[in-house]
């Protein structure tokens, strides 16, 4: 399970409450635990962090009454370099100076649930990467191995044997690809099932069309039974 600490900083109570309610309504299952605090100004948020409070994500209003959100963001980054800053704004055009505030994403007001959840999922993916939390455990030759999924190209299944392909190695273990897929879905969302025999890492896709996908020169078919779910999950992973 990933624990994610979130701060919402907006001088308008309506938007603070709206984001909190949307986060409370989303079903994260057993994979993510969220904790949320709200702030009406950037000064209080900075004071809390200087006192030892830690946040993974901050939803930060661009135009606060006492200060600019970008200025607050720069100070937050100085205190917590890995923090992900999601700026909330009614405006869409800013100067190149905003890069100093290192935005991870922008959300336009009024905040819609679809965009909020999309951004939050991207944030959690980044947090998992920063924590190196993409570890899959399996038994190979009687010993437990911890596999970094970022290095896995694809899993290949034949009968009850699953082969794990990386750039430099091929390992195999006994099991079912259905269970591998289920276990990995709890860890990350970038592995896709194009057919009953393969589970592929979308990060390594060279090309894709309706009927097949190519990973490092290997053409893998996308069968009818898996096509709809495959492309739906592919859209979420990119």
TrEMBL record:
GO biological process: phosphorelay signal transduction system
Domain of life assignment: Bacteria
All copies of domain Response regulatory, residue ranges: 5-124
Keywords, alphabetical: Phosphoprotein
UniProt keyword annotation of Phosphoprotein present: yes
Entries under SUPFAM superfamilies matching the protein: CheY-like
Transmembrane region(s): none
A single MF term (Gene Ontology): DNA binding
CDD domains: REC
Modified residues (4-aspartylphosphate): 61
InterPro entries cross-referenced by the UniProt entry: CheY-like_superfamily, LytTR_DNA-bd_dom, Sig_transdc_resp-reg_receiver
Record's function text: May play the central regulatory role in sporulation. It may be an element of the effector pathway responsible for the activation of sporulation genes in response to nutritional stress. Spo0A may act in concert with spo0H (a sigma factor) to control the expression of some genes that are critical to the sporulation process.
Protein's recorded name: Stage 0 sporulation protein A homolog
